[in-house]
Amino acid sequence: MRCQKCGNNHSKVVDSRQSEDGRAIRRRRECEECGERFTTFERIEATPLLVVKKNGTREEFKREKILNGLIRSAEKRPVAMEDMEKIVDHIEQRVAALGKSEVPTDLIGEYVMEDLAELDEISYIRFASVYREFKDMSVFLRELEDIVKKAKRSNDK
C-alpha cells in the first residue's frame, strides 16, 4: 500500500479486524519510511449483478431503487424505515442466492410484493398498482380480492 504522506510502497499492518457489517477487513497500517498511520479496507471483488428490464435493457442492481419504491409506496403509512431496509436486505439476499449474473426485474418486483404484502397491505396495493401497471378498476379489484382471501385464510388458521 502506498503511503498518502510520502508515497512509499512499504507499510506494515499494525491491526486487522472485521468491519461492522462483516463484509470487509479493516487494516491499520504504518508506513515503514515516515511512520504515518492509515486505514485500508479489503473487500471481495464481486461481479456486478445486472437487472434485465422489461424493455430488454440491462443495468446494475441498485438497492437504492428498491428502497425508493418502497418509500413511495409506504408514504403516510405506519411503516418503519427499518422494516423497509429489512425488505431490501432480504431481496438482495434472495437475488444473490440465485447465483445468476442477470435477474429480470419481474422477479425482483415479485419478491418486493411478497415481502410488502406481509408488512402493509396498503403499501402493497400502491406498489402493485405501479409495478403491475393496473389499467382499470377491475384489475385493482381483483388484487384487493386476493388480499382479502389471503387475510381470511391466515385468520382461519
Give a verbal description of the structure.
The chain is 47% helix and 20% strand. With 157 residues, the protein is α+β, with helices and mostly antiparallel strands. The protein folds into two domains: 11-43; 50-156. It is elongated. The relative contact order is 0.10. Residues 49-139 form the ATP-cone domain. One of its GO terms (molecular function) is DNA binding. Belongs to the NrdR family.
Residue-averaged pLDDT: 89
> In total, how many beta strands?
6
Distance between the termini: 60 Å
Helical fraction equals: 40-55%
Q: Which range does the strand content fall in?
A: 15-25%
Structural class: alpha+beta
Cα-atom Rg, whole angstroms?
Answer: 23 Å
The total tally of domains equals 2
Order of helices and strands: EEEEEHHEHHH
Largest sheet at a glance? Answer: 3 strands, antiparallel
Number of helices, where a helix is a run of at least 4 consecutive DSSP H or I residues: 5
Indicate the multimeric state. Answer: single chain
Low-confidence stretches: none
Shape: elongated
Question: Spatial order of the strands in the main sheet?
Answer: 1-2-3
Quick summary:
The chain is an alpha+beta fold and 157 residues long. It is 47% helix and 20% strand.
Can you lay out the helices and strands and say which pair or pack?
Layout: E1 11-18, E2 24-31, E3 37-43, E4 50-52, E5 58-60, H1 63-73, H2 81-97, E6 102-104, H3 105-119, H4 121-131, H5 137-156
Parallel strand pairs: 4-6
Antiparallel strand pairs: 1-2, 2-3, 4-5
